[in-house]
Amino acid sequence: MVMLYRLSRKTLARPDPSVDWVSPMATIVVLGAPRSGTSLLCALMEKTRQLGAPDEFFKHNLQKYPEIADPNDILLRLKFVAARATGGVCSFKLFPSQLRYAVDRVDLWRFFPNPIFVRVSRDDLLGQAISLVRAKQTNEWSSRRSGQGREATYSFTQIEDEMKFILATNNEWDIYFARSQVTPMRVRYEEIVENRERVLSAIADRANVTLKFIPSLEESGLERQRDDLSDEWRWRYVADAKVARPQSWIPRKLPRLANLASILR
Length: 265
Hints:
Elements lengths: L25 E7 L5 H11 L25 H10 L5 E6 L1 H8 L4 H4 L4 E6 L3 H14 L17 H25 L4 E4 H6 L1 H11 L21 H16 L17 H4 L1
Parallel strand pairs: 1-2, 1-3, 3-4
């Protein structure tokens, strides 16, 4: 397994903040594994108009924002992220590969000091994996984004692979925070759906913000993508798992993890 956090062997010159750089009053970093609920939380945060406008700004291939798509101009991305702050609160979303992209090029936390990490997870691992398989097959990553008519096809192997990937991603975050000695705020997808007011207020409290408005789930602009096909795949997977090779999901060896402590510093 190729670890997402493997540190670059190159020694890259990482620029310092310029004299005119103004760090935000608060920085909120939403992170997790794919299909964990990070998109829903980010959409709700943006709709409050007080918790920034979080998105994935540190993808290597950034097609959504062509004005900052050059992967070699990290400073342009940093300025873009800071400019989207609301009331001094800046926010963005990270997956492990995106954190590695950023820290290979800049000391991210010097530009955005004392970040508030909000780690999103999902209780239903199988449902998360099914959602990820469907998104990859159809290229429909949210209800806002059309899948261009591609059809999803059930695959026991792909669901197994995505469960392993999700677990590996969660493991990387575990190692990162353990070595950094940072305790993130933990949020479950199910909590966001059931009690978004409590979740958003807790995040706002950490940023020293009093929310004036709590958006509804409908106002997030996102629709739940789970449907009858998702349920069908679940029961097919459970049935297939009963006849699969026993313990086939157990990895033969644990992946080697690079030292992650320097990423935060």
